[in-house]
């Protein structure tokens, strides 16, 4: 039946044609984030409409508000890379209206409704709330796709995770530990390092007080990095034989020095990735693999949420301000 | 029977206890290479003794003579990374004395005899002489292990090969072309570029006259690089989506700038490797895979030798001088 009428008309009567969403009123002011009425998204083939209950806040959202991380072509201009909620319209997918799901998004999470390719839906882990789920979808898929699928994490490896106090770092420490790795991590405060140790980190380094190279030189199998350019050379010096450095953010700068001669006899590699720019087929593959390999660990209690604070969706600007301040340990979640 | 007596006594009567080999008389003079009498190598378990007929000359040999590329621990101090010849003593391997073989070496090729782990023996391709074989073992294993096994070359990819006039480059152009790739290459003279075109290169660039980035920006799936540091950033700019840069030599310098932010949305990677430092198990795997995937192409005439000149073993210094001059196109081979 649904295929006999245009997509936009398949929205059930319970879905309004307009919705509240966070919009940026001044492109030059990254804090000018306000709730406004916008059109409810229409569905493309293979998408479901999700009524958002909670949306995770990511550092990339701050960069987008600064104008430096525009959404991929054709994606929502609304900020927000992950959420959880209830399917309000299953479109042509055959999914059930009313099903609770987590969502990996290319954008659009800071809103009452979001259109999601069906391959980017993940189940709610047993024991998790929608808010819990909204706080881990982006981290779980990012960490597993890079540390597991790309770098080939196996038991007994030593993994260095930069930014152990952040959302990605908090998830990565727990996941690597649960998979049998020895985990080293860096952070910039005693509080964040204590948090990292609670999550299972074996070696914690305050980068403001000591050199991580001195502690880890030549010993790491995998490094998950969010600093980029300024850490490149030191990261490589921490890698051991066949070591893999994966850079997923460049918070410190876009370029750096690579000591390629040093890498040769050690057969090392540097990979740089973003999840958001991947085609939907790859995102679907990543979501499926993440659920297969990581969801059990969550349901066994080996990986828990690390929500620092929840705020109402209307307070997106304040959430960004908090995250920017460097005082947040773990995740911020906006609830609708 | 062989196992009942010490290894050193298993050398058949026809193998003398001393042999001629190139030795460096002055560690500070890379051209002080002279034939001298040295002890014939004794065999370790799993090794055969090969009577060398011809030994390929590699740029790495020049670096070793300069004192900058010492042999891995436990390996021969004699220069020479590849040869071909006849098994003179099969040790405990069960191979046949008298069998003709090509050899991938960690060192020792510039000599009358060399001890070789049995996994590093390759058959003589049909139609190839021992001299032909000695000219391609190192190139074939290096190119296949990096472009095939590591970077995953498939039909239709665009591959950039730096140094199309050299031994590695000449082999890589032909192999990639034979496997259905589009091949771009750089070299420093019209003569070398003509040679590269004869071997099948589709795009040839004189790096002294034009920018390879201008011609190839964002278009390459795989880059095989021998320049290292100074080319890093330009190489990355030439990579396309999911592109792989493999650095196997640093003729231009040991470090360079890596634009890691640029790489992220394109999911690019940089690998650095050397074949010589790999453990024997990996070398055996690489030799077997190279024979499996590349030998047929040689026997079908799709990859030919590109020997510029053969010289007597005693003329090793002159061979190094020639290779250093930059006027050699293809390979130099020393014949015993």
UniProtKB/TrEMBL annotation, chains A, B:
Residues 28-334 form the Enoyl reductase (ER) domain. The lineage of its organism: Bacteria, Bacillati, Actinomycetota, Actinomycetes, Mycobacteriales. The keyword NADP applies. NCBIfam families: quinone_pig3. This is Putative NAD(P)H quinone oxidoreductase, PIG3 family. InterPro entries: ADH-like_N, ER, GroES-like_sf, NAD(P)-bd_dom_sf, Quin_OxRdtase/zeta-crystal_CS, Quinone_OxRdtase_PIG3. Keywords: NADP, Oxidoreductase. CDD domains: p53_inducible_oxidoreductase. Pfam families: ADH_N, ADH_zinc_N_2. GO terms for molecular function: NADPH binding; oxidoreductase activity, acting on NAD(P)H; zinc ion binding.
């Amino acid at each position: 039946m649904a295929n006999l009428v245009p997509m936009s008309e398949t929205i059930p009567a319970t879905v309004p044609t307009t919705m509240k969403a966070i919009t940026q009123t001044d492109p030059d002011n990254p804090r000018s984030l306000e709730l406004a009425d916008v059109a409810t998204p229409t569905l493309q083939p293979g998408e479901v409409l999700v009524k958002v209950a909670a949306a995770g806040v990511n550092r990339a959202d701050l960069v987008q508000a600064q104008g430096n991380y525009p959404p991929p072509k054709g994606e929502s201009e609304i900020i927000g890379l992950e959420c959880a909620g209830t399917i309000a319209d299953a479109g042509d997918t055959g999914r059930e209206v009313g099903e609770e799901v987590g969502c990996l998004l290319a954008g659009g999470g800071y809103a009452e409704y979001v259109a999601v390719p069906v391959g980017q839906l993940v189940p709610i882990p047993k024991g998790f709330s929608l808010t819990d789920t909204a706080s881990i979808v982006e981290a779980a898929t990012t960490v597993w796709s890079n540390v597991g699928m790309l770098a080939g994490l196996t038991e007994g490896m030593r993994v260095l995770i930069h930014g152990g106090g952040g959302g990605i770092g908090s998830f990565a420490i727990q996941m690597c530990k649960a998979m049998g790795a020895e985990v080293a991590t860096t952070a910039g405060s005693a509080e964040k390092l204590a948090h990292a140790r609670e999550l299972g980190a074996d070696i914690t380094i305050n980068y403001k007080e000591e050199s991580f190279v001195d502690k880890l030189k030549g010993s790491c199998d995998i490094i998950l990095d969010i600093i980029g350019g300024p850490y490149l050379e030191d990261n490589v010096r921490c890698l051991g034989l066949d070591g893999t450095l994966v850079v997923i953010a460049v918070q410190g700068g876009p370029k750096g020095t690579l000591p390629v001669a040093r890498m040769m006899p050690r057969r090392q590699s540097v990979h740089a990735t973003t999840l958001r720019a991947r085609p939907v087929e790859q995102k679907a593959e990543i979501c499926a693999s993440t659920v297969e390999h990581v969801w059990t660990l969550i349901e066994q209690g080996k990986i828990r949420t690390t929500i620092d604070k929840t705020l109402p969706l209307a307070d997106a600007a304040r959430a960004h301000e908090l995250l920017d301040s460097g005082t947040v340990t773990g995740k911020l979640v906006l609830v609708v």
